[in-house]
Amino acid sequence: MSAAPAPSALGQALEKAIWELHQLEKIIELGAPSDERVIEKIEDFAQTLPALREAAEKCDDVEIPVELLRDVDQGKKPMGFMINQILAAGTVNETVKGKANVYREFAEALKGKLDGGEKKAGAKRGKK
């Protein structure tokens, strides 16, 4: 069994920011003993943001479909979105393949007619 890949700088920065945000949420949810504790956790979270921004800038541009973010926001699993997209692509591919096959057959038939027409025209010229 292979070892898990080393987490990227962006992944680590995301985990740290999410962890700090999670802790802040729990403190507020359970009723913070004081406002100072909440402010301290907000500051801890804010301190993670520069590292997150720096790590994100080092990454290539990544495009994330809005639908995926919406699904995650609604508590759905990202893998389900990916599976649905793959299945939809398969359906489109089947449709396109059918059209491509018809087009290929049409092009071959047309080429055959043109080749046959050229042979007949050449034969007529030879008879003169």
From TrEMBL:
It is found in: Nucleus. GO terms for molecular function: transcription coregulator activity. GO terms for biological process: regulation of transcription by RNA polymerase II. One of its GO terms (cellular component) is mediator complex. The keyword Nucleus applies. Signal peptide: none annotated. It comes from the Eukaryota. InterPro entries: Mediator_Med10. Component of the Mediator complex, a coactivator involved in the regulated transcription of nearly all RNA polymerase II-dependent genes. Mediator functions as a bridge to convey information from gene-specific regulatory proteins to the basal RNA polymerase II transcription machinery. Mediator is recruited to promoters by direct interactions with regulatory proteins and serves as a scaffold for the assembly of a functional preinitiation complex with RNA polymerase II and the general transcription factors. Component of the Mediator complex. Belongs to the Mediator complex subunit 10 family. This is Mediator of RNA polymerase II transcription subunit 10. It comes from Ostreococcus lucimarinus (strain CCE9901).
